[in-house]
């Protein structure tokens, strides 16, 4: 009679030498980009394309002799840049995980002493790297072409950026959980799930524009509070700390919930042996 698998809790996430194993996972992905410049170009392609398209729209608005139009132009560019941070964060995490599946490397990773928490930490680190490589060139382009400097948000920019990174990680944990549960059929969610959230995240317009019955849905998203706070700074010059606190509170709830789902799905995949043949 076989013994049941050991309980799987948060205390088991990291073991001795965890930092070294996390760095090994990160270095494996960095080596891919170092040897393949086209991968780096792909990281920058969509943020820059978005910035160019929306930049022309905002250039038109700024050309209208109206102070409101000029403010709206800045709000649109700020929304594009910060939303790209959320998109790149989620996709950087999810696609780094999918690359382990596509290369048939997931089973090999967990033959090693790598813990699930160390895998997640490595994917988060790669998410930050991929996000910075994608978004920073777009920020520079916005400054060079449209004279929009998002750094005018000051220290709040770091808080907004970090909050969107956290939301991206929470969503990515959900995507990874779906892939563990349903296999290759769920891979498309890595590219589409946050795009589907965009209309409710108040990226380009305030939550008050939405129908009343949709506004509670919007306020349940950390991103909507980030963008409401961003507009408060750019339009009124005041920091709306209530929205920022709500964003971080929701992020903690989202991360806790998605971490629980991920751990459950990972354990189920390990028991069924799906880690070895997932994606086939």
What would the keywords be for this entry?
280 residues; mainly alpha; 11 helices
How would you sum up this structure, described in words?
The protein has one domain (16-277). Mean pLDDT is 81; it is low at 1-13. It is globular. The chain is built from eleven helices and no strands. The two termini are 31 Å apart. By secondary structure, the protein is mostly helical. The relative contact order is 0.13.
Mean pLDDT: 81
Helix-strand category: mainly alpha
Helix content: over 70%
Largest sheet: none
| Quaternary form | single chain
Number of domains: 1
Q: What's the SSE blueprint?
A:
Elements: H1 18-35, H2 37-63, H3 67-102, H4 106-111, H5 116-146, H6 155-182, H7 189-197, H8 215-219, H9 222-236, H10 241-272, H11 274-277
Helix pairs in contact: 1-2, 1-5, 2-3, 2-5, 3-5, 3-6, 3-7, 3-9, 6-7, 6-9, 6-10, 9-10
